[in-house]
Write a structure and sequence with these properties.
Helix content: 40-55%
CATH architecture of the largest domain: 3-Layer(aba) Sandwich
Radius of gyration: 21 Å
Strand order of the largest sheet: 3-2-1-4-5-7-6
CATH topology of the largest domain: Rossmann fold
CATH superfamily of the largest domain: Vaccinia Virus protein VP39
Length: 307
């Protein structure tokens, strides 16, 4: 199976995870094992890399690519990390990585239905099971569709696009990515069509809804932090502002200590920070990486250390 995966921010991720040869590390979004292979190659016989992914294609490829290293690959969502570690009798980890969003393989395989560049069945399921993009597009009412497009895609033409989808499916279901892309193009102003590809935000929004990405992210952040050892590090790579905001706010909450009003002469709440920021600002791609990997343009790496 061809599964291209160019890991973004790889040197920066490895440096900030501070990988130790005898450590236990979790890649919660193993994908094509780009980051995982580099982490696992730094481990000794007492170290372990655990790779998780909900996509069975990714699990098969990562298993093959990591077979020469001290690694285990398990199909599952990173939000289930605690249960997975319990099943392995592993109490905690020295470092955890989450590389969020859709993988290059998922975008590049037309039959997976993620891309608006090819005509394929509407799918977008990372796990290849459960509710699909077809279901959401053809069964959600207009108000629900508008909310998905506006909240998850920040699409300013959400209303007209949702209305166009509902009108179209009165005649027949919207079954392919090509049909959906054409509906979006016809629903936005001509000037907007000339300036940029108008489909990106709609496809992003529907993909996020299909896979409940923000729900899993919030649960996954809590699960990952709970699975970290004291002194362990959590590294998150995001690719758009909405998921980055969730990560930034959660990191800030963990790093905040006293919540007493500023005019109190001394702390009475007794709250202590649970973590410290390793990267005070998000790490972004170098000029050379930007030239070589277009996916790195929107990538941001944030890292905290558990106290």
């Amino acid at each position: 199976m061809e599964f291209a995966h160019v890991p973004v921010l790889l040197p920066e991720t490895l440096e900030n995870l501070a990988v130790r040869p005898d450590g236990i590390y979790i890649d919660g979004t193993v994908g094509g094992a780009g980051h995982s292979r580099e982490i696992a190659s730094r481990l000794g016989k007492n170290g372990l890399l655990i790779g998780l992914d909900r996509d069975p294609d990714a699990v098969a490829v990562a298993t093959a690519r990591l077979q020469a290293f001290p690694a285990k690959v398990i199909q599952g969502n990173y939000s289930q990390m605690r249960q997975i570690l319990d099943g392995l009798n592993i109490p905690s980890a020295d470092g955890i990585l989450l590389d969020l969003g859709v993988s290059s393989h998922q975008l590049d395989e037309p039959e997976r239905g993620f891309s608006y560049h090819a005509d394929a069945p509407l799918d977008m399921r990372m796990s290849q099971e459960g509710t699909s993009a077809y279901d959401i597009v053809n069964t959600s009412d207009e108000q629900a569709l508008r909310k998905i497009l506006y909240e998850y895609g920040e699409e300013k033409f959400a209303g007209s696009i949702a209305a166009a989808i509902v009108r179209a499916r009165e005649n027949s279901p919207v079954t392919t990515t090509g049909e959906l892309a054409e509906l979006v193009r016809q629903a936005v102003p001509q000037k907007y069509r000339r300036e940029k590809n108008p489909c990106k935000k709609t496809f992003q929004a529907i993909r996020i809804a299909v896979n409940d990405e923000f729900g899993h992210l919030r649960l996954g952040l809590e699960a990952a932090f709970a699975c970290l050892k004291s002194g362990g590090r959590l590294a998150i790579i995001t690719f758009h502002s909405l998921e980055d905001r969730i990560v930034k706010q959660q990191f800030a909450a963990w790093c905040k200590g006293c919540t007493c009003p500023p005019d109190f002469p001394q702390c009475v709440c007794g709250k202590k920070p649970k973590a410290r920021l390793v990267t005070r600002k998000p790490v972004t791609a170098s000029a050379s990486e930007l030239e070589q990997n277009h996916r790195s343009h929107s990538a941001k790496l944030r890292v905290i250390e558990k106290l």
